[in-house]
Amino acid sequence: MGHYLPHTDDDIRSMLEFIGVSSVEELFAVVPDAIRLAGGLDMPAGLSEFDTLAEMERLAARNRLTGPDLVCFAGGGAYDHDIPAAVRHLAFRSEFVTAYTPYQPEVAQGVLQALFEYQTLVARLSGLEVANASLYDGATACVEALNLAVAATGRQRVWVSTAVNPSWRAVMRTFAAGTGHEIAEAPVEDGVTRWPDAGEAGAVLVQYPNYLGCLDDVAAARAAADRAGALLLVAFDPVAAALLRAPGSYGADVAVGEGQPLGTPLSFGGPYLGLFACRTEHVRRLPGRLVGETVDADGRRAYVTTLRAREQDIRREKASSNVCTNQTLIAVCFMIQLAWLGTTGLRELALRCARGTRYARDAVLAVDGVEPATGATPVLREFAVHLPVAAELVVERMADEGFLAGVPLAEEYGDGLLVAVTERRTRTDIDAFAAALEKVLR
Hints:
By secondary structure, this protein is α/β, with parallel strands linked by helices. Helix 9 (about 220-230) links the parallel strand 7 (about 205-210) and strand 8. The protein is built from 13 helices and 17 strands. The chain has helices at about 10-20, 25, 50-60, 85-90, 95, 110-125, 140-155, 165-180, 220-230, 310-315, 330-365, 390-400, 425-440; strands at about 70, 130, 155-160, 180-185, 190, 190-195, 205-210, 230-235, 255-260, 275-280, 290-295, 300-305, 370, 380-385, 405, 405-410, 415-420. It has a seven-stranded mixed sheet, with helices on both faces. Strands 13-14-17-16 form a four-stranded antiparallel sheet, covered by helices on one side. The mean pLDDT is about 90. The protein folds into two domains: about 70-80 and about 340-440, Alpha-Beta Complex (Aspartate Aminotransferase, domain 1), CATH 3.90.1150.10; about 85-335, Aspartate Aminotransferase, domain 2 (3-Layer(aba) Sandwich).
């Protein structure tokens, strides 16, 4: 692949002459023979750029159908939503794509204003006063929420619902191994968290809707937090927020979430976007960046990163977070799509998801052998079912039928499948999905 090799024979001779050796072999003579590879690498001869591309396309053609070739009913934290053309057209302008950290506001007003608008939208969705300029994803947003709560209350013990995304809980446990947080998990029954007597705790974390697609009882979580003297942390969904009460209206102290559903494709799992909002009293423990509005020397509206003298910047040994960055480009995509939809458009999007989910759940439960995994608890965009055969096998067979069937449930939820329905799924898609499921379960 000579196109990618920058050194010509003349370049190599010139280099060797400059450093005073006669050959490449002499250059590497200082490497002991015992660790040098004798006989060279067992590799075929190099190819041109275009021959290499043709070979890669040949190999790719051997793969089974994936991604856009399968009708997607998978969810579990990442969803196959429509993305308006305006999102990519606007967000991928060079001003956003090549933007660097906005330390110099005099040359970064466009990016700073976009992030300010993003923060405003997240604050409105969450029903809380302050939102940061984003975090890495939903999992890290949950970690930072726990960090904030522990720092605010001085208590290491935190309660997390078992109905919170298991991947997020795994990340929280990983971080807790270093921070010393003691994570206790509250059980789930029929898709709803049953909060035990928590004793004294620093935080109570509930997901709404939860991982199983159910509308968990946030009021019960608030009551558990009050009994424990803890902060209430709510992991919310930005699409579902169009139909459900905002976390702030339940008394949430912190709201976090995954922003991927708005403006970001599935992209094989990332990069995604962490949403984070809190009450004003916790603003100095807010992780990451915060953009504020001010006026410049001429009295004109201007934007800057603000409250930079937070603990993670100046008192590192007492810091509750070491995050000092954000996902600017993906946050801009989120902001553009949400602004593009507006209040009415976001509500219509959520309604289409809810209606499609209800239709799909009825169709799937009509298949012999399929049982609901969460009783009659209301769901919004996805639902869990128990199957008469292993979910992993069903997913494999459904791929042969042209469907990405869903996400197999973790063992703690019992053997089953998590099925998601977004606005992209038509009635024809759902009918075909149910028919294919009936076929593979025979």
